[in-house]
Amino acid sequence: MLSDLLYRLRALFRRKSMEAELDEELRAHVARQVEKYIQSGLTREEAARRARLEFGGLEQVKEECRDARGVNFIQTLVQDVRYGLRMLAKNPAFTAVAVLTLALGIGANTAIFTLVNAVMLKSLPVANPQELYRVGNDDNCCVIGGFQGNWGIYSYSLYQQFRDHTPEFSQMAAFQGGLGDLSVRRGGASRPAEAYAGEFVSGNYFTMFGVSASAGRLIAPADDRPGAPPVAVMSYRAWQQHFGFDPSVIGATFIINTMPFTVAGIAPPGFFGDTLRSDPPDFWLSLSTEPALNGQYSVLNHADMHWLYIIGRLKPGAQPASVQSELTAEVQHWQGAQPDLTAQNRSELGKQHIVLAPAGGGVARRLQTDSATGLRLLMAISGLVLLIACANIANLMLARGAARRTETAIRTALGAPRRRLIRQMLTESILLAVLGGAAGLLVAWSGARAILQIAFRGASYVPISPNPSLPVLGFAFAVSLVTGIIFGVAPAWVASRCDPAEALRGAGRSTHDRSSLPRKSLVVLQVALSEVLLIGAGLLTQTLRNLENQKFGFETQGRIIARVDPTLAGYKPEQLHALYQQLRQRLTQIPGVLSAAYSLYSPMQDENWSTDIPIEGRPFDEWDNASFDRVSPRYFETIGTRLMRGRVITEEDTPASPQVAVINQTFARKYLPNQDPIGKHLGFLKPSEFEIVGVVEDAKYMDARGPAYPTFFLPFLQKAKDPKLYWLERSQYMGDIELRVAGRPENLNAEVRRTLADIDPNLTVLDMKSLSEQVAQNFNQERLVARLTELFGALALVLACVGLYGVTAYSVARRTNEIGIRMALGADRKSVLALVLRGALGLIVLGLAIGIPAALAGGRVLASLLYGVKAWDLLTLGLGAVALAICALVAAFVPARRGTKVDPIIALRYE
Amino acid sequence: MSNERIDLPQGTLDLLILKTAALEPQHGWAISERIQQISSEVLRIQQGSLYPALHRLERRGWIKAKWGASENNRRAKYYELTKSGRKQLEAEETAWRKLIAAVGQVLETA
């Protein structure tokens, strides 16, 4: 294949010398033949005559030789491309409209493909990613205990077991399931600590991925031993953005969460770790430093605390299926050997299993699975837009084909075979599509940037580049080719079927128009597809609006959420009381702050603590599960959740006072139905630990689409007495500060930061935003899909209108004569207008008749994405149809009115 | 031109060219002469189709061409078999023999 191509290319570029050689070769042959005949006794003339006769036409043989060499194919192509370019240059308006339409259509598809490529197809930037496998495919996070069924996250002890007993892996590395917040400042620097993302990784993490440092060295197994000096690896991006490639960073001491680390080196550029996500780690720390860094909340040495993901490199030839069953056996064996197994645990032991998942693309996390639906939908929608664009250009080409009928007729009359005509027309349309594709790359580049911004709102960095990569360029080119063929085939076919005699006799005079049926069908198709898109856009936009403006059970306006973590500043549990006392007092003093509160976590922050919950007077059922949060006095008032019964948590609820809880309505309805919940008790282990003192309104904390979870709220610093509840200690640390403010929340950001730094300069603000922004970031994907569908819907509408305008204008032009006669016979303008509009209206109605059922069918596909609106929402259907009909009628009205302005005398003389 | 001469069946020209060029590099005229001689003048080669065939075989990489001096010191384009050409020749020869045998069998028994 390749040698064939090279041969053809050489044939093309060395055309002159090859032509000369061919000529010489054939002449030599004839000369030899002549000599032979002379030797056999013929005269020179007779010999020459016979030899030439036998040989046949020299030029004909040459042409056949060229064909055999494949030179002709390329030559014809060059000829067609040149001719095509000339034709396009001759019609700049047509070319501009077509290229622009294509650029939008192809650009939209390419932009979305850029994302699809990055999110779903691309491998991690590491050595031989196809050898990587993840032990487990579940994305449980971040620290969990007990059985998992389908395992995905492991304790350090379990990781060691796998690492040392699974010889099919050449390397097996462990790393933290969820990233941790780090509060980092350079040793000796006077600047306050800044927030970074960090990840604990095993010593062989970088070796396993096969990446090497861009400066200094990476973490090595020797660093991951108890007692080894603590070292950290900084990401290339952090080095660039925060330290300006300062070489003295390498080897320098950094204070991370109050503990000194040496920065050993910088990770390679482009390396974002094990998972494609927004805001990937800025620092990697070895697992062995976890106990010192997390202190009493360390999980490293708890065999029953699962917090590590595992990725390994399989040795060549190892069978994933057999490794998978081996790992499953190992996890069952390990779990069976654990102390404290209940009878129920033992019965479930056989169900514990591990799936070995390819991890060349990294840990398949929510970014992939979540966005897969959205991206697929967007691919489908942008495909529809491209189809509409194709229909539009096919229409333009048909119109042009009709105008070029004389030209085609002459070429046919002169003997051009039909194949050749079709090929020429197709070359032209593919040329147009490739031009459009090139322009589309620009659209794609800026489009992909915009999409990334909407899709990852709230992220400061996303490791996805909007720049077209090789696969993206290939995709754009392939789409252009296919597009060119799709919109080029019909016009080429129609043009090639023209009867030269008829065309030459009365070019443009006959009322019979071959291209009118396909042109009308294309407009009907456009109207139908636009209707589908418009209705889809309407449904998705309403979904977004319903989600954002629903009753959350708290107020989104005029609230600020500041994320802090006192553990990062080294607070001990006994120091918390003083901090909390000061905190509310100082924050409330800021002018503009109406009330201040803090909690373990705030609503719609993608955080959730949940537990089994024994309840007084209710037989224990291990499926009784509730979320819980710790909240400060005035918390509910600050976020705007109403009290329904009893009282809220107040200043009186101190560590020394009776232990109390406030529940939400769903909790009361689900677990304490038909009774007064006030005065009842609940607990983590025994149904007697906390007394219920109040019921608050339901508020959504995790899932915006579902109902509120049953939830109970506890005051801070009331301690659990049972030592089994040591893990609960961590919940005494606040995670969020909530402020109810007057005026724009953003205006107070600086003042809040200053006040917090004043209270304790080590109390790093990890993040600060308004509650409405925090809520909005939950709907990034819905917003992306809705905005793009709106954009595409508008684009489709414009294209359909242009198409209808074109068809109507064309038909008016063709019927000028007829209109003139009608008017001469007494028809008035109104009836002529009606005549033309009736034709257009027919197309619109037909398009809607196809489009609405198609939209209904499409709505069923969308159904799972919709919220608060039905797929057969009559209002949306009606509005979509009316909007389209009005726009389309206006588009048809303009040329129709021009038709009525025809002067009958001129019209009759026309042609 | 004697009446016993027959035209080549479709597709056999390539085989004959390959076979002829397999012995030693030959130029086009020599190839056609040789085929006629060896076949006792029975096979007649349309000279017009010889050259397109040669160029096609060259494009497929079965033969390669070189300019050299001919017997009477004239420049001539010599064609010789390539490695893949030899393989192709073997394959075509086998196929041809099978065909002949099969056709012969049918003719004798049917």
Fold and architecture overview:
The complex is a heterodimer of chains A (911) and B (110). Chain A is an alpha+beta fold and 911 residues long. Helices cover 51% and strands 13% of the residues of chain A. Mean pLDDT of chain A is 86; it is low at 507-511. Chain B has a single domain (6-109), classed as Winged helix-like DNA-binding domain superfamily/Winged helix DNA-binding domain (Arc Repressor Mutant, subunit A, Orthogonal Bundle). Chain B has helices spanning 12-23, 28-38, 47-60, 83-109; strands spanning 6-7, 26-27, 43-44, 63-69, 75-81. In chain B, the strands form two sheets. Chain B has a three-stranded antiparallel beta sheet. At the A-B interface, helix 1, helix 2 and helix 4 of A face helix 2, helix 3 and strand 5 of B.
Name a few traits of the molecule.
heterodimer, A: about 900 residues, alpha+beta, 4 domains, 7-stranded mixed beta sheet, 6-stranded mixed beta barrel, 28 helices, about 50% helix, globular, B: about 110 residues, Arc Repressor Mutant, subunit A, 3-stranded antiparallel beta sheet, two-stranded parallel sheet, about 60% helix
Quickly give the CATH architecture of chain B. Orthogonal Bundle
User: Which spans of chain A have pLDDT < 50 for at least 5 consecutive residues?
Assistant: 507-511
Number of strands of chain B: 5
Could you tell me how far the N terminus lies from the C terminus of chain B, measured between alpha carbons in angstroms? 34 Å
Helix content of chain B: 55-70%
Strand order of the largest sheet of chain B: 2-5-4
Task: Write down the overall mean pLDDT of chain B.
Answer: 83
Oligomer: heterodimer
Our count of domains of chain A comes out at 4
Gap between N and C termini of chain A, in Å?
Answer: 55 Å
**Rounded radius of gyration of chain A (Å):** 37 Å
- Main sheet of chain A, how many strands, which sense, barrel? 7 strands, mixed
Mean pLDDT of chain A: 86
Question: Largest inter-chain interface?
Answer: A-B, 25 and 22 residues
CA radius of gyration of chain B is 15 Å
Strands of chain A, total number: 24
Strand content of chain B: 15-25%
Superfamily (CATH H level) name of chain B: Winged helix-like DNA-binding domain superfamily/Winged helix DNA-binding domain
Structural class determined from secondary elements of chain B: alpha+beta
Unreliable segments of 5+ consecutive residues of chain B: none
